[in-house]
């Protein structure tokens, strides 16, 4: 059963909130470049703000400028697109499945994409990102189909609980397949060890540039489709009764999710919990309207990933793979969510 | 207002129950008349189900006590309670592949120890429960192949197999069509009059309750508004006070029980 | 219905004999009989190499299957499994911490660390899922969350640990029966037997736990206490299995389903059936692993997941 209604605030509360949504969105969007520039100042050696700006506007070949353009800029850009893409993918999944636990990480879509990438590297020797991304798309799509098929079996259809468990089963299965491949192939193990945890480090600008167009296309598509997605979120009966092409829009949403999550994984590996946590943060800010949730998820996801990654490096001096950081932040949120809303999730 | 039945094995003594600061039952006392069919009625949210669960010992009241055979329930073990009293929840759930026979056999749980084997007495109790509910021919059917009415009867059989003298049911007729509703009500009435069972059921249909029950309790906002035999309780002013409807009470031409016609 | 157990038992016997016979030095059934009669060469191969491995495989498989049956009954969900619910993650974390942070010989401490990790994870799940009592759904979801946390912690340790330590930890976490001997079998037996017997005694309670909470309590069962006891038994069994063979996923998920196909819904029958199927599955995974030169733990999901997919697909019309 879908229960989107439980989220909808009574009376005009959500309407009065909507008046503030526009300005709030502007603030969130404005915060993104600020966060990005700050994130570029932190790292192994702090670089002053004006050096960053100088490197971005006029490259002078100095060591600091090389570090900014070759190391910090790609990492921050990768963080921005990965965060925005995973958050929006999670928001779309939560809307379409009416499932507050839906997210590319929990439902095994990240694991599917990651497995396909490892497979391509180990068995076919593919190393060009432009090719790998298609494997990531195929893996994400395959995983989505499997999880939905298994999770919707039995009485009651695809309940949040069953989908989450099916996602856990598939993730464990793919992890074991990956282990089998890596145990037999030391070379691949070395090249994917960090990536398979989820990491933004060491991605050259060319790789970011190869992946970004797909992700940006997905983000644009999600924003354009926000209204029909909002209608979908109200349940299949309502959607059909207002004349929406249910199967068509569901398929379109699946394509968007695969595009967003697949390209994020191709770039940064399977980063979990961004797609779960950010839409919930957005919902706390703007209420149950998925048009606003999707619009907010993009900047919030980018801020969360880049901010958490940079904050750990800058303030604590630890360079953790972003996949671990996100799990450390996201898993407690997930447990809190499970404690609060368990009865809705059956 | 509260009419004391001559004897009572189940009694609520000034109980109050609340969830997160909101009182659902407020200082409510009454005793369940033994060997009679008591219907619990009230508008949605009046606390009927909560009261029933408190009577079953599933909720411990914040203040006051529920007594069974004169002993406070809080001092008894779940097994001791289960041998005296059985409850059928509103929408009970069990594994879908279980057969009716196995489901009913679970009703014997409170009568068996860790090492006790299945006995002839267990067998007899199950058979009696299946016969009373007319589910004997369904015994080997899995639960998932039953219709709504058959399912309700199977669960009733499970509750009966518990062989307790007190039977509590939460909306046993909801989701059933009229004929199945009448079947369930007739079964309850038969249990009371032929086996001497004490029955307390939460019901929605006032007229149906008046036809089958011996006693009616009207509940509003967690407090007892009226109790007594149907002819006393079925009064237009009481119905109006409890359900906020304008009602006319007439007499059933066949059974001579009161019938409630609600208007607005 | 009792006939349903004949097939799995004979299958288990056949698998055990095959595992005993197959290897670098092939043994004919006659050799195995000879070993039993006291032939020295065959005796070494059967008695000290393959014998304990088969014995440990059977017992670990049975433990995992029974733990899985408990989990599915307590969580009321056919997809629940101790491994998916953080118990394997906790064990893996315990062992990784031990390997990465302690110097010196730690091999003999690995089972203990695995067991301690599993117990702590199970306690954390039960504690965090407690909110005016437990609920099956909360237990599952909190389990998934704890699983993700322990996974992240393991990744953290392995990403920054010494490569040789990490390789040892990864090897252990793959799950295998390498190096099984009679000592390991005897302490596994000592740990698991009481829990297996206790679980069998609680078969009726397991039957009733499939009902909804109100029903369970009005039948006279002390619900939260019983859930706690059963989760404890499940942790002992899964923890002992993890300690003996590393984390082996999916046997606990699949064996109860195979037992379910065989008929009877009562746990008095289901538990021994599931245990037998668990033994078959692990023997098969170990045999396959030896053929492909991979640890058994890599193969259990490869066998398990397609099976689960088919089973659930067939149930989809229910």
Task: Give an overview in words.
With about 350 residues, chain A is mostly helical. Chain A is built from 14 helices and no strands. Chain A is about 75% helix and about 0% strand. Chain B is α/β, with parallel strands linked by helices and about 260 residues long. Chain B contains nine helices and twelve strands. In chain B, a hairpin with a 6-residue loop joins strand 11 (about 245-250) and strand 12 (about 260). Chain B is globular. The two termini of chain B are about 25 Å apart. Chain C has about 325 residues and is an all-alpha fold. Chain C contains 14 helices and no strands. The longest helix of chain C is centred in the N-terminal third of the chain and has 36 residues, at about 40-75. Classes of the chains: A mainly alpha (about 350), B alpha/beta (about 260), C mainly alpha (about 325).
- CATH structural class of the domain at 2-82 and 178-314 in chain C: Mainly Alpha
Name the helicity range of chain A. over 70%
Seen as an oligomer or otherwise, the chain set is heterotrimer
The Rg value of chain A, from CA coordinates, equals 20 Å
Main sheet attributes: strand count, strand direction, barrel closure of chain C: none
What class do helices, strands and sheet pairing of chain A give? mainly alpha
Strand content of the residues of chain A, in percent? under 5%
Sum up the overall morphology of chain A in one term. globular
Brief synopsis:
Chain A has 346 residues and is mostly helical.
Explain the layout of strands and helices:
The complex is a heterotrimer of chains A (346), B (264) and C (318).
Chain A: H1 13-41, H2 49-57, H3 63-97, H4 109-124, H5 129-151, H6 160-184, H7 186-192, H8 205-224, H9 226-232, H10 236-241, H11 246-268, H12 274-286, H13 290-316, H14 322-345
Helix pairs in contact in A: 1-3, 1-13, 2-3, 3-8, 3-11, 3-12, 3-13, 4-5, 4-6, 4-11, 5-6, 5-11, 8-11, 9-13, 12-13
Chain B: E1 8-19, E2 22-33, E3 37-41, H1 48-55, E4 63-68, E5 71-72, H2 78-84, E6 85-88, H3 100-106, H4 120-132, H5 148-161, E7 166-170, H6 178-195, E8 198-202, H7 206-212, E9 215-220, E10 223-228, H8 230-233, H9 236-243, E11 247-251, E12 258-262
Parallel strand pairs in B: 3-8, 3-9, 6-7, 7-8
Antiparallel strand pairs in B: 1-2, 1-4, 4-5, 9-10, 11-12
Helix pairs in contact in B: 3-5, 4-5
Chain C: H1 6-21, H2 29-37, H3 40-75, H4 87-101, H5 110-128, H6 136-160, H7 163-174, H8 182-201, H9 203-209, H10 213-218, H11 223-245, H12 251-261, H13 267-292, H14 296-314
């Amino acid at each position: 059963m879908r229960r989107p209604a439980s989220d909808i605030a009574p009376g005009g509360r959500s309407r009065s909130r909507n008046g503030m949504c526009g300005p709030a969105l502007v603030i969130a969007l404005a915060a993104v470049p600020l966060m990005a520039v700050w994130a570029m100042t932190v790292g192994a050696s702090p670089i002053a703000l004006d050096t960053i700006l100088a490197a971005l506007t006029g490259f002078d070949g100095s060591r600091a400028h090389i570090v900014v353009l070759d190391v910090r800029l790609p990492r921050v850009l990768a963080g921005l697109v990965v965060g925005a893409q995973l958050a929006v993918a999670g928001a779309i999944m939560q809307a379409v499945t009416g499932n507050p636990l839906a997210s590319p990480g929990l439902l095994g879509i990240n694991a599917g994409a990651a497995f396909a990438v490892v497979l391509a590297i180990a068995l076919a020797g593919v190393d060009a990102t432009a090719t790998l991304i298609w494997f990531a798309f195929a893996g994400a799509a395959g995983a989505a189909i499997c999880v939905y098929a298994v999770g919707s079996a039995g009485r009651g259809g695809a309940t949040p609980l069953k989908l989450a468990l099916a996602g856990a089963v598939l993730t464990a299965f793919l992890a074991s397949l990956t282990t089998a491949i890596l145990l037999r192939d030391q070379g691949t193990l070395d090249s994917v060890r960090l990536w398979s945890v989820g990491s933004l480090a060491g991605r050259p600008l060319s790789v970011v540039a190869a992946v970004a167009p797909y992700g940006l296309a997905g983000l644009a598509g999600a924003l354009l489709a926000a209204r029909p997605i909002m209608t979908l979120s109200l349940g299949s009966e309502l959607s059909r009764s207002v004349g929406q092409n249910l199967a068509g829009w569901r398929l379109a949403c699946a394509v968007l999710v695969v595009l967003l999550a697949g390209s994020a994984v191709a770039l940064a590996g399977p980063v979990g919990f961004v797609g779960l946590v950010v839409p919930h943060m957005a919902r706390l800010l703007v209420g149950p309207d998925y048009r606003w949730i999707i619009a907010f998820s993009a900047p919030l996801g980018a801020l969360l990933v880049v901010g958490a990654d940079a904050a750990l490096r800058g303030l604590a001096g630890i360079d953790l793979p972003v996949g671990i950081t996100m799990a450390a932040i996201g898993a407690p949120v997930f447990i809190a969510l499970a404690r609060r809303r368990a009865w809705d999730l059956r | 207002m509260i009419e004391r039945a001559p004897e009572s094995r189940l009694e609520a003594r000034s109980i109050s129950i609340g969830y997160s600061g909101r009182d659902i039952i407020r200082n409510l006392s009454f005793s369940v008349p033994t060997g009679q069919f008591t219907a619990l009625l009230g508008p949605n949210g009046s606390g009927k189900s909560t009261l029933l669960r408190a009577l079953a010992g599933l909720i411990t009241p914040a203040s006051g006590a529920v007594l069974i055979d004169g002993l406070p329930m809080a001092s008894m073990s779940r097994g001791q309670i289960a041998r005296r009293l059985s409850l059928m929840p509103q929408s009970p759930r069990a594994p879908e592949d279980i057969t009716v026979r196995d489901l009913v056999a679970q009703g014997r749980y409170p009568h068996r120890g860790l090492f006790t084997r299945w006995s002839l007495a267990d067998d007899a109790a199950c058979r009696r429960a299946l016969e009373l509910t007319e589910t004997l021919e369904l015994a080997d059917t899995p639960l998932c192949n039953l219709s709504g009415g058959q399912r309700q009867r199977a669960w009733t059989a499970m509750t009966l197999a518990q062989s307790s003298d007190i039977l509590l049911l939460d909306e046993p007729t909801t989701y059933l069509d009229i004929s199945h509703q009448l079947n369930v009500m007739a079964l309850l009435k038969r249990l009371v009059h032929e086996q001497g069972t004490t029955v307390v059921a939460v019901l929605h249909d006032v007229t149906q309750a008046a036809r089958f029950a011996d006693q009616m309790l009207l509940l509003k906002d967690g407090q007892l508004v009226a109790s007594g035999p149907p002819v006393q309780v079925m009064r237009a002013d009481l119905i109006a006070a409890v359900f906020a409807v304008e009602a006319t009470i007439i007499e059933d031409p066949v059974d001579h029980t009161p019938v409630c016609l609600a208007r607005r | 219905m009792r006939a349903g157990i004949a097939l799995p038992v004979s299958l288990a016997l056949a698998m055990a004999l095959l595992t005993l016979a197959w290897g670098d030095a092939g043994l004919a059934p006659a050799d195995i009989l000879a070993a039993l009669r006291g032939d020295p060469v065959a005796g070494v191969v059967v008695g000290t190499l393959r014998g304990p491995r088969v014995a440990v495989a059977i017992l670990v498989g049975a433990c995992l299957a029974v733990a899985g049956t408990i989990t599915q009954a307590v969580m009321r969900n056919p997809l629940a499994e101790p491994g998916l619910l953080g118990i394997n993650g906790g064990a893996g974390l315990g062992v990784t911490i031990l390997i990465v942070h302690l110097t010196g010989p730690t091999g003999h401490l690995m089972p203990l660390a695995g067991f301690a990790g599993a117990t702590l994870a199970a306690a954390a799940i039960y504690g965090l899922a407690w909110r005016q009592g437990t609920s099956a759904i909360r237990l599952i979801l909190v389990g998934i969350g704890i699983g993700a946390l322990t996974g992240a912690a393991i990744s953290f340790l392995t990403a920054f640990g010494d490569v040789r330590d990490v390789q040892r930890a990864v090897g252990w976490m793959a799950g295998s029966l390498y190096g099984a001997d009679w000592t390991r079998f005897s302490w596994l037996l000592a740990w698991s037997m009481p829990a297996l017997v206790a679980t069998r005694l609680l078969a009726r309670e397991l039957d009733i736990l499939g009902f909804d909470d109100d029903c369970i309590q009005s039948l006279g069962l002390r619900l939260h206490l019983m859930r706690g006891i059963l989760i404890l038994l499940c942790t002992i069994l899964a923890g002992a299995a993890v300690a003996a063979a590393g984390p082996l996923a999916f046997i606990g998920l699949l064996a109860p389903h195979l037992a379910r196909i065989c008929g009877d819904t009562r746990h008095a029958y289901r538990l021994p059936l599931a245990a037998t199927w668990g033994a078959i599955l692990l023997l098969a995974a170990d045999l396959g692993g030896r053929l492909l030169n991979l640890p058994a733990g890599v193969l259990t999901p490869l066998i398990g997941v397609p099976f689960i997919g088919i089973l659930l697909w067939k149930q989809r019309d229910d």
